[in-house]
UniProtKB/TrEMBL annotation:
It holds the Pfam family GntR. Residues 2-69 form the HTH gntR-type domain. The keyword DNA-binding applies. This is GntR family transcriptional regulator. InterPro entries: GntR_C, TF_FadR/GntR_C, Tscrpt_reg_HTH_GntR, WH-like_DNA-bd_sf, WH_DNA-bd_sf. GO terms for molecular function: DNA binding; DNA-binding transcription factor activity. SUPFAM superfamilies: GntR ligand-binding domain-like, Winged helix' DNA-binding domain. PANTHER family: HTH-TYPE TRANSCRIPTIONAL REGULATOR LGOR-RELATED, TRANSCRIPTIONAL REGULATOR, GNTR FAMILY. The keyword Transcription regulation applies. Keywords: DNA-binding, Transcription, Transcription regulation.
Length: 259
């Protein structure tokens, strides 16, 4: 994926969450390209990616349109992905990861550190981290060699916001999103460390905790019902049961264990 396509993809996801499009609204390449200051090709490719992720759907009049989805289906899919990625990482920890795979994972860690360990992050930095994050999760899943798991993850990534990078960043400001990316990066380090040390059960838990950042971002968008319609067009505002609110210290403690 080119840097321009990554940038456009981040911008479109952000616009979708902020309520720039209504449910059922047609998304045409030319107006979007003009709005984002990009050429049609990266917009076309980004729209195809968003369709695969389940955020948009084909329009009967051609092109794409916004689809309807619920907060429950989003968080359910994210947590299932956490369990499956945990299974993949546990397989690597217990059976041993190849030197090549570990080198590639460390390359992701280095690239991620370079992106988030700076005073501020700009849009291009977010796009770069999305690329690194996607690569990291791809390596975990495909490195396991479990074809059934790989196929299931691929299918799951077609659900709204379920893909590894679909909820990065999903905060009201770049500064706040920067802090969550730092937390995600610390968890990436903990996951690789657990794999290298053969800690199967630990890495399974770390992966399941890791996706709570994405769930937390969704809860963040829904914690103020009066604003939710502007943030998530067409969503049925039913928060998943037994999900701590973003400010709940119990969730922050769970996330901190991944450091």
């Amino acid at each position: 994926m080119s840097s321009q396509q990554s940038r456009v993809l981040v911008q479109l996801r952000d616009l979708i969450l902020k309520g720039a499009f209504l449910a059922g609204e047609r998304l045409a390449e030319i107006p979007l390209a003009e709005r984002l200051g990009a050429s049609r090709t990266p917009v076309r490719l980004a729209l195809a990616t968003l369709e695969h992720e389940g955020l948009i759907e084909p329009s009967s009049s051609g092109g794409y349109q916004m689809r309807r989805y619920t907060s429950r289906e989003v968080t359910d899919a994210i947590r299932v992905r956490g369990v499956l990625e945990g299974m993949a990482a546990r397989t690597l920890a217990e059976q041993g990861a190849s030197r090549q795979l570990l080198r590639e994972l460390h390359d992701c860690l280095d690239a991620g550190d370079e992106t988030v360990d700076k005073p501020t992050m700009e849009l291009d930095d977010y796009a770069a981290y999305v690329e690194v994050n996607t690569r990291f999760h791809h390596l975990l899943v495909h490195g396991s060699g479990n074809l059934a798991l790989i196929r299931t993850i691929t299918m799951l990534n077609g659900q709204p916001f379920a893909a590894a990078s679909a909820m990065l960043p999903m905060q009201s400001s770049f500064d706040e999103g920067h802090q969550w990316m730092k937390q995600a990066q610390r968890q990436h380090h903990a996951i690789v460390h657990a794999i290298e040390n053969g800690q199967g059960y630990r890495v399974q838990g770390l992966c399941e905790e890791h996706v709570e950042i994405a769930c937390m971002n969704m809860e963040y968008a829904l914690e103020r019902p009066e604003e939710a319609a502007e943030l998530l067009p067409g969503i049925h505002l039913v928060a998943p049961e037994h999900t701590p609110a973003p400010g709940d210290p119990r969730l922050r403690q769970r996330l901190a264990r991944g450091r």
